[in-house]
Amino acid sequence: FLMERKTRVKIKRKEVMLAKLKKSCSCTPQKLKNFFMDFFPVLRWLPKYRCKEYIWGDVMSGLVIGIILVPQAIAYSLLAGLKPIYSLYTSFFANIIYFLMGTSRHVSVGIFSLISLMVGQVVDRELLLAGFDLNDDASPSLGDGSLQNDSLSNTTAFNLTTVGINAECGKECYAIGIATALTFVAGVYQVLMGIFRLGFVSMYLSESVLDGFATGASLTILTAQVKYLIGIKIPRSQGHGMLVITWINIFRNISQANLCDVITSAICIVVLVTAKELGDRYKHKLKFPLPTELVVIVVATLVSHYGKLNEVYASSVSGAIPTGFIPPKVPEFNLMLRVAVDALPLAIVSFVFTVSLSEMFAKKYAYTIRANQEMFAVGFCNIIPSFFHSFATSAALAKTLVKTSTGCQTQVSGVISAMVVLLVLLFLAPLFYSLQKCVLACIIIVSLRGALRKFGDVPARYHMNKVDTLVWIVTMSASALVSTEIGLLVGIVFSMLCIIVRTQRPRTALLGQIQDTSFYEDDLEYENLSTVPKVKIFRFEAPLYYANRNYFLKSLYRLTNLDPNLEVARRKKYEKKEKQHLKKGNHRTPNGLGIGETTLQLVPKQIDFQTLIVDCSSISFLDTTGVNTLKEILKDYKNLNISVLLACCNPSVIDTLKRGGYFGRDFGCMQEMLFYSIHNAVLFAKDQK
What we know:
Blueprint: H1 13-25, H2 29-39, H3 42-45, H4 51-80, H5 84-101, E1 109-110, H6 113-129, H7 147-151, E2 157-159, E3 168-170, H8 171-195, H9 207-230, H10 242-252, H11 259-281, H12 292-306, H13 309-313, H14 333-364, H15 371-386, E4 394-395, H16 397-405, H17 412-428, H18 437-447, H19 449-452, H20 458-464, H21 466-481, H22 484-504, E5 508-514, E6 520-522, E7 529-530, E8 534-540, H23 549-560, H24 564-583, H25 595-602, E9 609-615, H26 624-638, E10 643-647, H27 651-659, E11 674-675, H28 678-688
């Protein structure tokens, strides 16, 4: 039977586009109000804020995250190659802006180790190109921690007219200039992606690619912190292969390790890991996580200050951290041009992590987010703070988990966290002068536990899906051994190649009938299937397009044990020789057979079927090559008096076949060539006999 298709209403695309354009360009007071309400979601939910119900959870989670943010911000400044004060600025502004523009109630947006690493790699590269020594660390001078005194801590000053900065600029000044330019461009990219609705780009970052990228970057982060752990002075490696070069330099200089830093690092790692493990084990009994990092930083700072570890044992310390805010400054345009390419992967990674976390927690707590607005929010979390000496931000999983576990209800908690950071910025920052860098390195390394544990998941991942495991390994290896940006690109390209290869060489099978049913399955996978006499049922589990056309034909000929082109050629050859012998009056063929026997000889034994049914249930689309391939096998098998029937085609495939002329001009033979189930095709084939 032939099902009747619905009549499609022809859409006049030009009129629709003009109507949409007219609607979007019109401006009314109500539309203007809705625009501002959508652009600043806080205007919608804040007036409905249930103070008695939400305030305690928001305040508690905000305080806890603020306490965690301070040590993490100071620590992650090592990754970014910047002074700790800039990390604190970043944490403060990101929380305020996301409070105004974000649609997720729970994610914690701020400084993130992976983003800090990507920023730090660009900063280090540009410092080298500008002629600065990456290891030219000034010995911290005593002072009151003011901005004026801190500005004197820059070492060699360079006149950077070649890169567009006309005034003399020191190493720290140039480093934050690069970071803010990079951040501004990344934010612009994210806003443009939001305007043009390019959020679909995130679809090409599979879970395996993201996990592999994060794990590979974690190895790079860990490697970069080892020199601080053991207190050695080695050059900061740049470019491809940084991980291997850094480890070679570490082992070459291991004899210069600072014993004070080694002992401090060992104690801090033991304390932090033990506290984290106990916290994970008894988290259901704890109302909020233990502020272990803050305790370690406070105790380590006191020990370092009163034990004079910097003066006596030459242990490297954080140095003076100024208080207050530096006057805002527009990022340098010429520097933006230098980092425009680097900003693209940074923008994509920042957006993908933020949106994926937002969607995950929105689903968990039964509300919705707007991915496009999230892109705007993250974009402006980068654009606006770049004027205030901040660098790129993203949502962070670890802090978001802590936020939800401590009772967070809305982004009011982000404002509380920002107030805690502001307190440190205004009053408490100079107190961290004597904090050892090895303590900060310990905090960073321990925070990587989650990503490094992914190595333990490899066997389970391999058991679940071998191809995804290969994608993870390739992405992780490229991210660690080459560079993070190249690793991300390699992961995306390799995962797409895997999809292409899987469609180029998909699974194929001949089907048998499940006894006493109208269902058919792979006869190599299931027992007790019965073959249908004189019928072959072929399944191709992929779209049929130009890249897998040859594989489709080879698989069909191999499984049916018949190549129609070869068989037709063989028959023509025999017929030609037979005619030649008949003209000579020889009634025997070259094989020594009579004419009657020749007829039997020309019908090959392997042709044990009269109908070929192609199961199209897994063919999602056809291109021109695919249609021509089906027309080709229809013609070739017809020359051998074998019928070709199609079964289980979806509507788009049927439409493509119609447009390609597969069913003829008037579709008169369509009901004899197309069937909505394999069983209908089998019954038709039996009737035709």
